[in-house]
Design a protein that fits this description.
mainly alpha
Length: 99
């Protein structure tokens, strides 16, 4: 069985088509790489923004907690003053009964 002969023009045509396909694939790959990088950068920026917002919220909550702690200390002081006043009243009442 004899193989068909292939002309030089046919080989050149196939070569040109192959080069065109390789170029198209390369351009498409470059486009997809660029789109992937842009998407990753946008996602990264969004993550940074979310992290910054979370940090801000945590700082705000820490400040609120500190203020609550300060208020709690003030209530403890008021309670202690109330106990001291009660003791003075009891002493005054005791002294009034003795007199």
């Amino acid at each position: 069985m004899e193989l068909p002969s292939i002309s030089k023009e046919s080989v050149e045509l196939v070569s040109t088509k192959f080069d065109t396909i390789i170029t198209d694939v390369s351009e498409r790959m470059n486009y997809l790489i660029q789109q992937t990088c842009q998407s990753a950068e946008r996602h990264h920026d969004q993550c940074i923004a979310v992290a910054d917002e979370a940090t801000w919220e945590m700082d705000r909550l820490r400040t609120i907690i500190e203020r609550c702690d300060e208020i709690e200390l003030e209530f403890a002081k008021i309670k202690r003053i109330g106990e001291i006043v009660k003791q003075f009243k009891n002493r005054v009442a005791y002294l009034e009964k003795r007199a």
